[in-house]
Structure prediction request, 81 residues.
Amino acid sequence: MPTNLPLPLKLLLFLPLLPLLPLLLLFLALPVLIAAAAATGPLLSVPLDATGWGKWLAVLGLYDLVFALLAYALFDFLMED
Prediction:
């Protein structure tokens, strides 16, 4: 990609990839949806069963930690001009 183009023209080069964005977001959000549904399932049962939701909260915490560390590691690389 040419580096001397203004930003709006650089963004136009990525326009053909725009339909793939929902697919990417689906794969990023799917583990969160599965873990959240599995964590709230036992808490919403009629005889309250408070076992088994702790591991799913740990999965959600680990998922958050991975993305926080990834954002911290890639911030300088992505912000350099």
Q: What stands out?
A: The chain has three helices and no strands. The CA atoms of residues 34 and 56 lie 9 Å apart.
